[in-house]
C-alpha cells in the first residue's frame, strides 16, 4: 500500500468522551469514528485490523471443522418467542417493526436462528456433530455505551454453535473450540488467560471465558500460578480459611460501638483484628401474595460478597437487598448493627464457609450503636446454613490444592459455553437416533468479540507514543519511511525497490509517500502502532544502510540494504 | 475442502413460493434458506459464492484507488433529516428506535453517513479526490419481497462514494468506476451490458446501469448492434417514425365503433393499419387548493407509454391517471373513446413525436362507441405540445444515427451515478480551495448488488440439471468424485493425491467423500453447478485415466492421471 492512496487521519488530542487508553488511541490514530452513542464507523486503518482478526478467526474455525454461513441481522420475533427470550431480554434487545407491523429483533446473538436452521436441515444422527459459525454485526442496546469498541452497541462478533448427539459429544465439540480459541489468541500475539466461568443453570464445568490480560481490564481473573486452575471471580471457589471451628472461649458480651456501622470501624475501636468481625447483609425474597422471606448473609469483615454466588444459594435466585423498613421489621434496628443473634423476626441465616468456622466473633447486636463480642454458633444462635458467598482474595488456597491463588485483571474477548438442551428443547430441535427415537440435540455456543479484540489488544500494548500492535493483527506489518521521497531520486528508487521486494516476499508493507517531515511521519506511525519501521535516507544509503527500528525498540539499528528483506522477515517471525 | 467436513443440503423440489429459476435453484442447491419474507440465511454453499463475488469486487475497487471502510448499519435519523430523506423515503426505509426513544434508520445506502465522515475529515482541496467504499448489509423494506436474493429485504451491497473538487474531477472518478465495473463483471464471467440510465433531476449522461443479460430479466435494455449506443428503456430516446407531417387528405369523419375501446379493435374493424390509430391517455395533476389540471397524452396505437418519460415533461412531475369521473367531466365520455378533438373542457394535449407528424389519423371522438377518421392537427384541433413519450421498439433508429435499435432483457446488478452536490450542499460538505474559499464537493455513488449477482448469474447460466457457475464465482472450481472412496484403496489414494496436487496448484477443489452412489453424487454437483468434475474410478485407473467433464460438456473425456493437474489448470483458464 502507498499512503497517498490510503486514508490516514491522526489527531493530536482525543475527544473528551474517550475515557480509556484504547478508545483514546483508536480515535487519535483514525481507526474509528463515532457516528452515534456506541456506534462507530470503522475507518480504513481500523478496518484493516478487523480484517486481520477475522482472517485468523476464520482460518482456525475452519481448521477446527466448523462451517461458515451467514445468518440475517433482522430476525423474526416468533423465533425469539419460542425460547422465551423475546420477553426475558430487556431493552438490550433492539426490537423493530417492518412496514406491516411485524416484529423483529436485530440480532445480539443467533441461537434461535441457528437452531431453526438445524432443526429443519438435520434429521438424523448421521448429520451430527456439526458446528456452524458466522462473523456478523451484532447490536446490543447497552444502557450506557462507552469505552469505544469495548462496550459499543453495534459491534462484530464471531458466534459458533455446535450440535451433538449426546453430552459426551458436546463436551468433545466444546474442547475442540477451546483448543481453537487457544490457537486463535496465541496467533493474535496477545497475553491471555482462559478461566472457568459461572455456568448459570446448566452447571458443570461447561463454560470458559477467554480474557486478554490488561491492568485496565474490567474483570478480575483468579488463577493459581503453580497449577492450571483459573476462573473468573464468580466461578472461583473460596475456601474456608479456618480448617475447623474452635470451641467458644469468651462469653457473649454486648458492647457500645457508637456510630460504628462498619466492621473496619468496630475492629479499630475494639482493637481487634478485622478478621474477628462478621459482616451481616440483609436480603429479602418476595414470595407469592406479597409475603416476604428475610435472609441474613454473613461474611468475614475483611471479605467481599459475591452476588453471583448468592444467586446460586437455593432460594436466593431472586433476592434483593432489604430496605431499611424491612430491616427495622426483621431486626428491630438500622443497617450496620445487624447480626444473627437475637433477631426480631426469625430469619434464614447463611454463613460463608469461613464464618461458619469462626468462634468468639464480633457481630452487630441488632441494636443501634451496639455490637456483640464473643458470639458463637450453636451457643448464642442456631447453626447457620453454610455456603460459599465471598470473592476469593490473593493467597486463598487454590481449590485444586496445588497452591495459592493470584488475581490479575482481564478483558473478556471470548466465551465458550456448553448449552446442553436449553434451546433445542424449547425449539424442538431433535434428531432421530439409530432406533428412530427423537432426541434433543446437545448444543454449545462459542463467541469471540471481533471488534473488542482491537480495544483489548491496545489496552495490553501501548506506550506514551501510541499503540503497539502485535504483528499478526497490525494494520500494516511494516512502514517504509523515505526521507525525501519526492526530492531524492536515490531515496525514491531504494524505497520502491524495497517495497516491491517486501510485497514479493508476502510482507504487508506501506510506503509513506505523503511527503511529511520526519518528525510528523514518525509520530503518525508510532501513534498508529505499526510494529516495524524502516527509514530510507540518503545519509544511510551512502554507507549502504537502511535504518530499522521495532516499535518497542529504544534504538534504531543500521541494516545493510542487501540483507534488509531477510532481516525483516526474521523480525516478523519473532 | 472435503464434503464430509462441509455442509451440503440439496432438495429434489423447490418450495412453492420460489417463482423464478434462480430462486428455485438456489433453494434446491442449499445455497440459501428462508428466515422470513425477503430475509435469507446464506448457507455455507451460497456464502462461498458471495465471498468470491466480494473478493473480486474488493480487488478491483482497491486497484481503482478506492479505500475500504465500514459504516454502521444503524444510523441516526438526524443525518437523514439533513438531506430530507428521512421524510421523503417511504416505508422502504426501515426505521427503529433505541431504548431512549431516539430514532435510527437501518441503512439502505450510506450517502448521509459518508458525507458526514468526509465533511469532518477532509477540509482542504489537498484531500481530494477520494473514493470510499464498503461492502455491507442493507435493508430495504420492500412491499413485496420475492424472487429470493433478487428482490430481498436484507441483502449485501457494495456502495462507493467519490468526492471531487469539481465536475471534471467527478466525471473522471465516475469513469474510473465505470471502467472498474467493466473489469469486475468481466471477471465474474457474465455476459453484461452497461446502459445509460435516466439521471433524474441531475441531467446529463451521468448515470449508467450494469445489467447481467438474461432472457428472464425484469428490465428491457436498448442497444444498437452497430454502435456503442445502449440505454435502459427509460433513457432510450424514441425517434419520430415520420420524418415530416403529410398534408391532410381526408375529411374528419365520425364513425360508429361499437364496444371498441382499444386501438387494435378499432383498426381491425375499420380495416386500417394499427399505425394509423392514436391512443389517448388521460392524466390529472392536482394543483393547490383542490384545483385539477387535465392532460391528454397521445401515442401511436402500436406504441407503449413510458411513464418515466411522462414524468420528465414539465408540469407532469406528479401526474396520476385520471379517474372515470374526471374523464367524464373533461371529455364527456368513458375511457376508450377519448381524443384531442372536441374535448368537453380544455385539456393540455401532448403528442408523442411520431403522433405529432401523423396526418389523417384515427382517434376517439369523445363520445362512447364513436371514433374519428381523418383527424388532422391544426385543422381539427390545436397543434399539440410534442414530447418523447413512448418506449422504443426494435428497429427504431438509434439516437446516434449509427443503425437501428435492438432490445434484450437484463437484470440490474450495478449502478454508477454522478450525484453532483445533491448531498454535499444539504449537508454542508465543503472543502477550502486554493484561495481558502469553501466549495461544495462533487460526489458520485457506485453500487453493486453483491447478493443479487448470485441470482443474476444463475438466470443467465442454468440448464435442466441445475446451476452452471462461471468458474470465477463458483462455490468450488472443481469437484472430485471418487467411485468408492471408502471401498477402494486405489481410488482413495488417487483421489487424495489429485486433491493435494490441486490444492498445491491453488485450485479450489472439493472431494466428495460422502460415500453417495454415483447417480446421486453427480446430480448433487450438477444441481450445485460446480463447473468442472473429475471422476476417479477403478475402471479408468486400470488404463491410467481419470474422467473429466465440464459442466456444459455433453460427454466426459478420459485424461491420463499424470497430466490431470495441468489439464485442469488449462480448463480453469478457459
UniProtKB/TrEMBL annotation, chains A, B:
<dbReference type="GO" id="GO:0005829">
    <property type="term" value="C:cytosol"/>
</dbReference>
<dbReference type="Pfam" id="PF03129">
    <property type="entry name" value="HGTP_anticodon"/>
</dbReference>
<dbReference type="InterPro" id="IPR004500">
    <property type="entry name" value="Pro-tRNA-synth_IIa_bac-type"/>
</dbReference>
<comment type="subunit">
    <text>Homodimer.</text>
</comment>
<dbReference type="Pfam" id="PF04073">
    <property type="entry name" value="tRNA_edit"/>
</dbReference>
<comment type="function">
    <text>Catalyzes the attachment of proline to tRNA(Pro) in a two-step reaction: proline is first activated by ATP to form Pro-AMP and then transferred to the acceptor end of tRNA(Pro). As ProRS can inadvertently accommodate and process non-cognate amino acids such as alanine and cysteine, to avoid such errors it has two additional distinct editing activities against alanine. One activity is designated as 'pretransfer' editing and involves the tRNA(Pro)-independent hydrolysis of activated Ala-AMP.</text>
</comment>
<dbReference type="InterPro" id="IPR002316">
    <property type="entry name" value="Pro-tRNA-ligase_IIa"/>
</dbReference>
<dbReference type="InterPro" id="IPR002314">
    <property type="entry name" value="aa-tRNA-synt_IIb"/>
</dbReference>
<dbReference type="GO" id="GO:0005524">
    <property type="term" value="F:ATP binding"/>
</dbReference>
<dbReference type="GO" id="GO:0006433">
    <property type="term" value="P:prolyl-tRNA aminoacylation"/>
</dbReference>
<dbReference type="InterPro" id="IPR007214">
    <property type="entry name" value="YbaK/aa-tRNA-synth-assoc-dom"/>
</dbReference>
<keyword id="KW-0436">Ligase</keyword>
<keyword id="KW-0067">ATP-binding</keyword>
<keyword id="KW-0648">Protein biosynthesis</keyword>
<dbReference type="InterPro" id="IPR044140">
    <property type="entry name" value="ProRS_anticodon_short"/>
</dbReference>
<dbReference type="GO" id="GO:0004827">
    <property type="term" value="F:proline-tRNA ligase activity"/>
</dbReference>
<dbReference type="InterPro" id="IPR033730">
    <property type="entry name" value="ProRS_core_prok"/>
</dbReference>
<dbReference type="InterPro" id="IPR004154">
    <property type="entry name" value="Anticodon-bd"/>
</dbReference>
<keyword id="KW-0963">Cytoplasm</keyword>
<keyword id="KW-0547">Nucleotide-binding</keyword>
<comment type="similarity">
    <text>Belongs to the class-II aminoacyl-tRNA synthetase family. ProS type 1 subfamily.</text>
</comment>
<dbReference type="InterPro" id="IPR023717">
    <property type="entry name" value="Pro-tRNA-Synthase_IIa_type1"/>
</dbReference>
<dbReference type="Pfam" id="PF00587">
    <property type="entry name" value="tRNA-synt_2b"/>
</dbReference>
<dbReference type="InterPro" id="IPR036754">
    <property type="entry name" value="YbaK/aa-tRNA-synt-asso_dom_sf"/>
</dbReference>
<feature type="domain" description="Aminoacyl-transfer RNA synthetases class-II family profile">
    <location>
        <begin position="33"/>
        <end position="470"/>
    </location>
</feature>
<dbReference type="GO" id="GO:0002161">
    <property type="term" value="F:aminoacyl-tRNA deacylase activity"/>
</dbReference>
<dbReference type="InterPro" id="IPR036621">
    <property type="entry name" value="Anticodon-bd_dom_sf"/>
</dbReference>
<dbReference type="InterPro" id="IPR006195">
    <property type="entry name" value="aa-tRNA-synth_II"/>
</dbReference>
<dbReference type="InterPro" id="IPR045864">
    <property type="entry name" value="aa-tRNA-synth_II/BPL/LPL"/>
</dbReference>
<protein>
    <recommendedName>
        <fullName>Proline--tRNA ligase</fullName>
        <ecNumber>6.1.1.15</ecNumber>
    </recommendedName>
</protein>
<dbReference type="InterPro" id="IPR050062">
    <property type="entry name" value="Pro-tRNA_synthetase"/>
</dbReference>
<keyword id="KW-0030">Aminoacyl-tRNA synthetase</keyword>
Amino acid at each position: 500500500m502507498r499512503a497517498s492512496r490510503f486514508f490516514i487521519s491522526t489527531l493530536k488530542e482525543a475527544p473528551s468522551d474517550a475515557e480509556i487508553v484504547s478508545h483514546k488511541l483508536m480515535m487519535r490514530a483514525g481507526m474509528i469514528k463515532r457516528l452515534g452513542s456506541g456506534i462507530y464507523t470503522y475507518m480504513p486503518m481500523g478496518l484493516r485490523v478487523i480484517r486481520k482478526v477475522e482472517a485468523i478467526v476464520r482460518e482456525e474455525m475452519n481448521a477446527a471443522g466448523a462451517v461458515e454461513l451467514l445468518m440475517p441481522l433482522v430476525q423474526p420475533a416468533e423465533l425469539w418467542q419460542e425460547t422465551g427470550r423475546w420477553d426475558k431480554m430487556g431493552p438490550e434487545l433492539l426490537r423493530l417493526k417492518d412496514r406491516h407491523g411485524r416484529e423483529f429483533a436485530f440480532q445480539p446473538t443467533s441461537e434461535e436462528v441457528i437452531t431453526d436452521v438445524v432443526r429443519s436441515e438435520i434429521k438424523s444422527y448421521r448429520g451430527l456433530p456439526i458446528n456452524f459459525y458466522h462473523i456478523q454485526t451484532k447490536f446490543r442496546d447497552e444502557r450506557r455505551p462507552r469505552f469505544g469498541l469495548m462496550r459499543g452497541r453495534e459491534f462484530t462478533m464471531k458466534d459458533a454453535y455446535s450440535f451433538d448427539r449426546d453430552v459426551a459429544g458436546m463436551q468433545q465439540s466444546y474442547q475442540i473450540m477451546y483448543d481453537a480459541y487457544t490457537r486463535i489468541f496465541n496467533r493474535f500475539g496477545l497475553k491471555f488467560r482462559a478461566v472457568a466461568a459461572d455456568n448459570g443453570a446448566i452447571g458443570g464445568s461447561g463454560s470458559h471465558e477467554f480474557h486478554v490480560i490488561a491492568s485496565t481490564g474490567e474483570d478480575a481473573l483468579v488463577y493459581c500460578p503453580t497449577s492450571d486452575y483459573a476462573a473468573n471471580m464468580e466461578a472461583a471457589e473460596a475456601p474456608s480459611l479456618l480448617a475447623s471451628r474452635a470451641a467458644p472461649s469468651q462469653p457473649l458480651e454486648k458492647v457500645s460501638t457508637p456510630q460504628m456501622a462498619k466492621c473496619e470501624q468496630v475492629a479499630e475501636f475494639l482493637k481487634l483484628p478485622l478478621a474477628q468481625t462478621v459482616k451481616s447483609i440483609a436480603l429479602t425474597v418476595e414470595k407469592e401474595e406479597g409475603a416476604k422471606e428475610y435472609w441474613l448473609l454473613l461474611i468475614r469483615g475483611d471479605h467481599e460478597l459475591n452476588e453471583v454466588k448468592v444467586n446460586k444459594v437455593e432460594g436466593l435466585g431472586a433476592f434483593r437487598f432489604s430496605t431499611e423498613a424491612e430491616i427495622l421489621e426483621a431486626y428491630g434496628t438500622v443497617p450496620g448493627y445487624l447480626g444473627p443473634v437475637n433477631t426480631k423476626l426469625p430469619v434464614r441465616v447463611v454463613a460463608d464457609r469461613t464464618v461458619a468456622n469462626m468462634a468468639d466473633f464480633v457481630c452487630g447486636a441488632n441494636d443501634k450503636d451496639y455490637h456483640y463480642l464473643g458470639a458463637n454458633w450453636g451457643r448464642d444462635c442456631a447453626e447457620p446454613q453454610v455456603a460459599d458467598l465471598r470473592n476469593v482474595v490473593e493467597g486463598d488456597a487454590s481449590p485444586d490444592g496445588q497452591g495459592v491463588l493470584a488475581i490479575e485483571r482481564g478483558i473478556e474477548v471470548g466465551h465458550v459455553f456448553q448449552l446442553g438442551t436449553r434451546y433445542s428443547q424449547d425449539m424442538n430441535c431433535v434428531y432421530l437416533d439409530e432406533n428412530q427415537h427423537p432426541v434433543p440435540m446437545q448444543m454449545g455456543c462459542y463467541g469471540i468479540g471481533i471488534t473488542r479484540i482491537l480495544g483489548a489488544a491496545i489496552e495490553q500494548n501501548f506506550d506514551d507514543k501510541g499503540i503497539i500492535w502485535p504483528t499478526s493483527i497490525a494494520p500494516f506489518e511494516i512502514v517504509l519511511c523515505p526521507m525525501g521521497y519526492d526530492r531524492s531520486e536515490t531515496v525514491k528508487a531504494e524505497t520502491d525497490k524495497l517495497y516491491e521486494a517486501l510485497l514479493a516476499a508476502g510482507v504487508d508493507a506501506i510506503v509513506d509517500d505523503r511527503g511529511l517531515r520526519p518528525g510528523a511521519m514518525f509520530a503518525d506511525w508510532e501513534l498508529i502502532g505499526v510494529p516495524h519501521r524502516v527509514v530510507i535516507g540518503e545519509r544511510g544509503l551512502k554507507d549502504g544502510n537502511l535504518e530499522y527500528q521495532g516499535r518497542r525498540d529504544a534504538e534504531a539499528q543500521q541494516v545493510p540494504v542487501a540483507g534488509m528483506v531477510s532481516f525483516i522477515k526474521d523480525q516478523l517471525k519473532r
